[in-house]
Amino acid sequence: MRVRASIGTLAAVGILDARLDDAPTTAYLLQDCERCLARCAFCGLSYGMDRIARVTWPRTELEVLLPELRRFQRVCLQTVLKRGWVEEATRILEAVHSVSRHVSIALTPVPKSYLRNLAELCDFVGVGLDAPSPASFRRCGKPFTWSTYMKFIESCAEVFGKGAVYVHIIAGLGDSVADVLRVMKRLYSMGCRVALFSYVATTPARFPGIDVLSYRFLQVARQCLEEGIDPEPYVERLEPTPRFRRAPPISNPLMAVLTSGCPGCNRPFYNESPRGPIMNFPSLRMVERLRESVERELELVGAL
Length: 304
Ligand code: SF4
Known about the structure:
Layout: E1 2-5, H1 7-12, E2 26-30, E3 51-52, E4 55-56, E5 59-61, H2 62-65, E6 74-78, H3 85-97, E7 103-107, H4 112-121, E8 124-130, H5 134-139, H6 146-160, E9 165-171, H7 177-189, E10 193-198, H8 212-226, E11 235-237, E12 243-244, H9 284-289, H10 291-300
Parallel strand pairs: 2-6, 6-7, 7-8, 8-9, 9-10
Antiparallel strand pairs: 1-2, 1-5, 3-4, 11-12
């Protein structure tokens, strides 16, 4: 069966020759399509490109890749909108489930009955809400409506269980830090979690992006929510550069800069060039290598 896989996934198993500054610990698969019908303005698949964010996705045969998937901590299937995508996704997941029990699916709203089928094959689910607010949701041309997504996210939490739903949120689509904080708080209060992405311009449509310090602030706020701490009482200001008045009591602020998402999901260089600045760190080894500058950034936002 024809699928796509991220260039890092193919390089990690030796199918493709590419230099890896940090290897993916999850195998990232993507449904094949000429052009995704979802039409999200920030995504290359909407324009018939073969990339999402900075990552390219060469085509491959699932049967060739399947025996290699055991090497990864997790396998993640990213779905697209096209005719017959649900049936195809099910066939891919059934094959993947035969070699790995740690499987995620990243998807758009589907009926609850299908979610129940998915829960037999996947232990975590990712929801590509992407836009942090209803206004940017419309600006980006996301499929469905904001309220359809919110109902769907609720259904995911019901079917997969609290803590097993990661909602993808992109910072830098023109929303304020307050907008991103608001949606993160709402999602955690629904029993879900946030996988935070930083916008990278790779398509004809352009969005403002986010600076490193604002992103570090959001990463620390997200880590607070992960640890059951409301970040708001610690906030001094949100504009122009957000800052905590005193460091929130999270277990290790350095952990906050790691890629967030399902267990084992590290998405190396999904948002950034290996030359930096690194927004999501794929490993603690890389945090250690750049420790001085990360600590300086965390100090500047009042998190250390
Ligand atoms: S957080 Fe990572 S593993 Fe989970 S659905 Fe999103 S991309 Fe896939």
